[in-house]
Write the structure tokens for this entry.
Amino acid sequence: MRKYLIIFSLSLLAVTAYGCSKHKAVNNGVNRTTQQAKEKCKTMYKSTMMPKEISTTPGKDSMGMEMVPFQVCEQTEREKPLAAGTVQISSRLQQMYGVALGLVDNRKLTISMRNDAIIKYDETKLKDINIRFSGYIQKLYADYTGMMVYKGQRLFTIYSPELVSAEQEYLLVISNPYSANNKELVHAAEEKLRLWNITDRQIEEIKKAGKPFDTLSFHAPFTGYIIEKHIVQGQHVDAGQTLFRIADLSDVWAMVDVYEDQIPFVHIGQRVSLEIQSFSGEPIKGKIDYIYPYLDNDTRTVKARVVIPNPGYKIKPGMYGYATIEDTIGKRLSVPADAVMNTGTRQLVFVYMGNGYFEPRTVKLGEHTDKYYVVLSGLEAGDKVVTNPVFLIDAESNLNEVSGAMGSMPGMDMGNQKEFQNPTVSDKEQKQNTAPPEKKQKQQTSPPEQDNSMPGMKM
């Protein structure tokens, strides 16, 4: 019984090997040959309703409908060997797969980049309000963060013993006849007040009043929003302390993330179209006015700065958007992007060689536009490449290579069917036909063995 099980296993292996050899030659219309064959094609006609009705001449089928033409091709001769993995696909399967071809050609390419952007304050229009002497906030008028203040608007009043002393010194200088005629002394006293951010108008008011003011008012230097506030009414403040930060939002910055491979195509003065997520209107136009000289370690991007006019202050710092940047790279040899398969270690395309043959080819590619890759090597102008469905062609090519590898294994010649035994011949007959002469006579005189095979399992 054990011997017959071994014989059954060997027979099953032979059948499997035979099937692999058939698959190597033809699989559902896919010919995985290593040589290119020319085809001789002729036009025939078939019924659209009765598929079995075929004619060599045009006419009507049995239902009275016009028959449609189709091509029938036959191999006539063989030529040079093709690259490993080359497959031949019949026209029927090409139509079933929906195989589409693209052309490798010299094209004028434009790179379009759509990158993330965030709105930030224009740093050139930020202003800190600080104090240059110590004192006490007597009255606070700008009393909350986010308040809009206008140029010249009063922010707070302050009482300072130091300021009162400086006012008294100034009044003494201008009231003394001897020192009043000394322009240098008068100028030094006035300059001391100016260095403390006392305006010429306030100095003139002190001069007219003839006495020092207990408190002085401080005003906004320009129109903007208070984005930082560090004081409250009655608070003591020290010299050098920052009290407010005011931002002018008439212009804002859009900070655009530029990835490393995009850096060569972004330059100062380039036009940018900005789409703000909060607005559904027309894109906002601007220009790149600065590209930062370092990468962000977290995002691995370079920041490109775009100045955006902001009439009506509708655009708010912190808003997100998308920036579209375009750059023309000239006329370059290119391949459709849909034709390229990125395997991780290489880039692959399938080149149509004619007569239904598709050859896998490793290529070296450059810049990537929306629809094309720049070709550095591996393709020439005029080559036709598969753009759809690339993954099916790749699957057939990989199966071809696997079948070829099985055929090259010792004892697994997939192309010679004569190597396999006929599974309908008994093991005893095969042994008698292949046994050495000295053992053949002994085998013929031996008593017949009992047939222990399973019913329906002829070995």
Summary: The longest helix spans residues 2-25. Residues 31 and 322 are 49 Å apart (CA to CA). The longest strand covers residues 105-121. Confidence is low (pLDDT under 50) at residues 7-30, 32-37, 402-459.
